[in-house]
Automatic annotation (TrEMBL):
Lineage of the organism: Bacteria, Pseudomonadati, Pseudomonadota, Alphaproteobacteria, Hyphomicrobiales
Transmembrane regions: 12-33, 45-66, 73-91, 103-124
Main location: membrane
The protein's name: DoxX family protein
Origin superkingdom: Bacteria
Pfam family, one: DoxX
Keyword Transmembrane helix appears in the UniProt entry: yes
Annotated source species: Bosea caraganae
Subcellular location: Cell membrane
Length: 131
């Protein structure tokens, strides 16, 4: 029964990419614009590590949402999430549920999957490869 579902893999991959990107973009816009709410620590000062992270999250997330340059963008975002985890979460505790880093780990591995799998359905990358 489940074998017949494999024909929907491109669409499932596209949905994973789109939903992940939509949620990820909010992490960047929160830090850049205070939307949907400003972080508890306030907006980061321009040209700081947090500010550059917010730029990467917002515009990298937008590129992923559109499926534009998915593999290189996903590689960059996976690296950002690995750095975020090891610099800011892991020093607090060994356990992700205690250090607040579980989302960073999940994003990192979803982005690594997108590096290998590509954009899936409904992407600029897909439409460019058909031309």
């Amino acid at each position: 029964m489940f074998d017949s579902l494999s024909r929907y893999s491109p669409q499932a991959l596209g949905l994973l990419r789109i939903v992940t990107a939509l949620i990820f973009i909010l992490h960047g816009t929160q830090k850049l614009f205070g939307f949907p709410a400003a972080p508890a620590s306030g907006l980061p000062a321009a040209f700081t590590l947090f500010w550059f992270g917010a730029i990467i999250e917002t515009f990298g997330g937008l590129a992923l949402l559109l499926g534009f340059l998915t593999r290189p963008v996903a590689f960059l975002l996976a690296g950002e999430m690995a750095v975020a985890y090891w610099m800011f979460h892991a020093p607090r505790s060994l356990y992700p549920t205690l250090n607040g880093g579980d989302a960073a780990i999940l994003y990192c591995f979803i982005f690594l999957y997108l590096v290998t799998a590509g954009a899936g359905a409904w992407s600029i990358d897909g439409s460019r490869s058909k031309a």
